[in-house]
Every structure is written in structure tokens, then in C-alpha cells.
Amino acid sequence: IKWTEGRGWHDAQLVPYAPLSLDPANMTLHYAQTIFEGLKAYRQPDGSVATFRPEANARRFQSSARRLSMPELPVETFIEACDALVRQDKEWVPDAGEASLYLRPFMIATEVGLGVRPANEYLFLVIASPAGSYFSGGVQPVSVWLSEEYVRAAPGGTGAAKAGGNYAASLVAQAQAIEHGCDQVVWLDAIERRWIEEMGGMNLYFVYGDRIVTPELSGSLLPGITRDSLLTIAADLGYQVGEGRISVDDWKQGAADGTLTEVFACGTAAVITPVGSVKSTRAAWPVADGAPGPVTMRLREALLALQSGRAADPYHWMHPLGA
Ligand code: PMP
């Protein structure tokens, strides 16, 4: 779907997957007005297909667009575009279980020019790819590297938007994590380098027995849809769940005195991933015994059961697309 200043959104098309042809002076290539979303379509037990909370993705896409001075796509148009692609590619939605069809809606500027200002032409696209279960050999805890040198986002920056530049800026820290033998990077706040923000492409939850806390939306972390869903699911399962500030010292101390029983990360791609161990330039410590914990696994099962249609959907989060 194209957007042109003065005309708005126009020319929606469903076309075979193919390369885009871009002018070398396309403004996106230089000034990075690119935003995206990620959501999944799941096969339901009756053979029909449903997406998970597309409206939440559509709203986050609008807020990312506002932050990047890009036009807002109406929520209904975002959902219709995803629906049309999933209907077209229905045979690519895996049959059951944790596998899904991953949808990647995104928007780029298409105006040609080298002046630094918001473009006057944009293109919104959706592509799709089947996604297997993230953990082929069972759920494996990840090891994390606390990034003290680099920050992902600062107050007033674009951290709360799903903007391409955030990911470009995070690659060097992810490489450091791997150099230090860790799977993923964990970001700290930009000012004090003390408060836990989020993981590479996932939000974090800290489990203290029956009490579960996730870092509050500081303005510089991404408001994850899985994170938001778990606030509701965990409360309904009887946990005392909330948002708060968690420091590196809280994490270290809780792990040392045993009050912190589990830590997990959550996001569309990996659903829920246990965090097994932590490393920073000064210290390394395990989270409990390093194995996937019962709260992590219970929440993971509850969320996957809802998404795959094995459990009821009291929140009306599934968006059915018909058989
Ligand atoms: N944080 C970041 C930086 C991400 O890229 C993602 C993935 N979209 C998340 C958190 C998790 O968000 P969601 O649950 O909406 O996938």
C-alpha cells in the first residue's frame, strides 16, 4: 500500500514475493525512516487460521510511525493487509503445535532526495515466513550478557518504537555478548546504567516465588505485546504480577539469597525463554539452578495453548480468519 502526501493511502496490492527496485537516493537508505512489526498466524484445532492480537501490533505500528514522522496506517487497514496475505498463503501456516506463519509488516520512505526531512511518499508492505518451534530440542535456557558499554535507547530516543535503527545500533553489543560466550544481550538504562530494560528482541520478567515483576515502560524499552499479554495471563493464574524497576544489584542479590526464583524473556519470536545465567564485565551468576523454572513453563504453556486454540480465549485476543 502506498502513501503520498495530499493523497493518503492508496493502491493496495497483493503481489508475488519479489525484490523491490529502489533509487540509490531513496531517503530510507540514508535516513532510516523504517519501522516494522512482527506477529504470528496459528493453525487452530478445527483447521482454521487465526492471528494473535493484530490490533495491538497495528497500534504499536501507529505509535512507531508518529515517532519517526511517518504517516499512520489505520488499524483496520493494517489488519486487512495481514489477513489478505495470510488467506493467500494459508497453506504455509504450519499444521499445529508451536509452529506458525510469522508476519512482518513494515514501512519505508520511497521519496528520492538527500534533504534531511520527513519524506512525502511511503510504502507499507507485509511479508511472511513459516516459523518452526524456536526450540527444536526442548526449551533451553539462554545465557545473557549485561551491556555496560553500549545502550540500546535513551530517554527521548526511539527505544519505544519498533524502528530499524534501534536494531542496527544493537548489533555491536550482541556481538560482544557472543564473544563473551553468551546467547543474548541485556540492556540497561542509559542514564544510570543500573536499571534492567530488556533483552535483544524480548522483554524480561523476574519471578520471586508467586510474585512476578517486569521492568516498567521507561520510554526507552519496547512495549512488547507478549509482555502485555503475560501481565493479564499471570494475574488470572493467581500470580501477583506488576511492573517495577529492577536493578542489576537486585538481580544479583535476589539470585544470591534465593528470593529470585526464575527469570524469563518473552516476545513473539521465542514466546517465552528461560534465562539461565548472567555475565557482565565484573561478575557472573546463575539464575536459581539455571534450569527452566515451573512458573516460566506454566506461563509458556498457557500462552501457547491460547495461541494454538487448545485453550479458551477469554480475552478475545485471537483474530480468526476462517477455514
Ligand atoms: N523488545 C524488542 C527490542 C523487540 O524487538 C521485541 C520483539 N518485537 C520485543 C521486545 C518483544 O515484543 P513482542 O512481544 O511484541 O514481540
Automatic annotation (TrEMBL):
Record bears the keyword Transmembrane helix: no
Organism: Actinacidiphila alni
A Pfam family reported for this protein in Swiss-Prot or TrEMBL: Aminotran_4
The keyword Transferase belongs to this UniProt entry's keyword annotation: yes
Name of the protein this chain belongs to: Branched-chain-amino-acid aminotransferase
Catalytic class of the enzyme: transferase
Similarity remark: Belongs to the class-IV pyridoxal-phosphate-dependent aminotransferase family.
InterPro entries reported for this sequence: Aminotrans_IV (IPR001544), Aminotrans_IV_CS (IPR018300), Aminotransferase-like (IPR036038), B_amino_transII (IPR005786), BCAT-like_C (IPR043132), BCAT-like_N (IPR043131), BCAT_family (IPR033939)
Catalytic activity: L-leucine + 2-oxoglutarate = 4-methyl-2-oxopentanoate + L-glutamate; L-isoleucine + 2-oxoglutarate = (S)-3-methyl-2-oxopentanoate + L-glutamate; L-valine + 2-oxoglutarate = 3-methyl-2-oxobutanoate + L-glutamate
Pathway this chain belongs to: Amino-acid biosynthesis; L-valine biosynthesis; L-valine from pyruvate: step 4/4; Amino-acid biosynthesis; L-isoleucine biosynthesis; L-isoleucine from 2-oxobutanoate: step 4/4; Amino-acid biosynthesis; L-leucine biosynthesis; L-leucine from 3-methyl-2-oxobutanoate: step 4/4
GO biological process: isoleucine biosynthetic process; L-leucine biosynthetic process; L-valine biosynthetic process
Record keywords, A-Z: Amino-acid biosynthesis, Aminotransferase, Branched-chain amino acid biosynthesis, Pyridoxal phosphate, Transferase
GO molecular function, one term: L-leucine-2-oxoglutarate transaminase activity
N6-(pyridoxal phosphate)lysine: residues bearing it: 162
